[in-house]
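Section 5.1 Outputs to date
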Amino acid sequence: MENSNKNSENITEWFGIGQDNDDNSEYESSLWTDMPEFVQDKKEDSYAKIIFRFENQNDLDDFSSLIGQKLTNKTKSTWFPFKKHRQDLHDKFFYIDEDASNET
């Protein structure tokens, strides 16, 4: 028990937990100068959100075929009509090797 208390004291010392960090705040602020501002794009809102509950696997399977989408007991959400939740990264980002594009 005594050894674990020493370890926690060392950790708080290392990370400055529970200490007055006025000396560090100026330094920490300087690390963020000239950094680009982070802007989170708003997610697309849906018109309605409805929760369905199924008594058994047959009911889930019937509903799944009715809407034409694969649903399992692990499915948390889906769009109707079907919409990808995430775009593949290769659809969004790509790399162009400028050296290779100049060679023909």
